[in-house]
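hey team, just a heads up i'm posting the complex here instead of the shared drive bc the drive is being weird again. everything in one block, sequence lines first with there labels, then the predicted structure for the whole assembly after. its four chains so it's a bit long, scroll down
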Amino acid sequence: MNETELSALLDITASRIARRTKAGRARTELTPARMSVLSVLIQHGSKSVSDLAGIESVRIPTMTNLINGLERSAYIVRRVDKVDKRVRLIQITKKGRTAWRSQFHKRDSSLAGVVAALTKTERKTIQRAAAILRDKLIINA
Amino acid sequence: MNETELSALLDITASRIARRTKAGRARTELTPARMSVLSVLIQHGSKSVSDLAGIESVRIPTMTNLINGLERSAYIVRRVDKVDKRVRLIQITKKGRTAWRSQFHKRDSSLAGVVAALTKTERKTIQRAAAILRDKLIINA
DNA sequence: TATTTTGATTAGCTAGGCTAACTAACTAAA
DNA sequence: TTTAGTTAGTTAGCCTAGCTAATCAAAATA
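-- predicted structure starts here --
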């Protein structure tokens, strides 16, 4: 299997996973896009909108949109940067941390069934693969 | 890392991949959802709309929608089942096969860059993981 | 000071999910 | 054989989450 075929396989597999988890998710829960933003804020602290957009590989208006959603739920706050008043520093709230943790530990993902059915070896392989990709995808952002 | 944490990691990683490939995709190309449907048709032959929805883990109206798009491009045809006239059998066309193959081998995925930068070992891990997941995700549909 | 550049937002597009409500076709029972 | 209920698929309308283009406000620069 060459590089492009692997890319295509990854792409298809990834979108199947995304579809699966979307199907099993209740209406009010944190979506993966929003979870991902909160992860970054937890890991790196306050960030500007454009920094977040860069890290998450989306355009700035898309990030504004995600931020709006998170703000509506009071999971983040916008603060105007003291030095450069154009910049909005996005900060996660207590409520945001709690929501993130709770979602992270939710048992009801429809993936959980698939994961549970894996052998130890399979699980290890997948965990390694996911870790590698997560890092590469962020670093190359 | 327990099962739920692995599920969450997988979910986040998958949606990052999906985001990446969406960003890099030209407007006219086959989208991942449509690619995935064509894959199933190539692998399993004609299928009803509800079978496809089951395999792809989406609701029936969603599949109707995807099928409509593929039909507009003449990548599939709908045939009425001889035995049960409620059933539409979805069949891939020559044009559909060609389009799928061409898309599958396209070089311009923004994932290709990430994949190219992987070591041999990393690539092997990821390939194995993707293959495992692709199978489990289809079988458990 | 006037102009350009930059960070963020707003408006409006698309894809691809969903539910609710419907039609058409089949099945079973009165 | 008609009637009631079920099943396959479609349509309509909503939502999230991407995108680009246009705008606004602040900062940097000529």
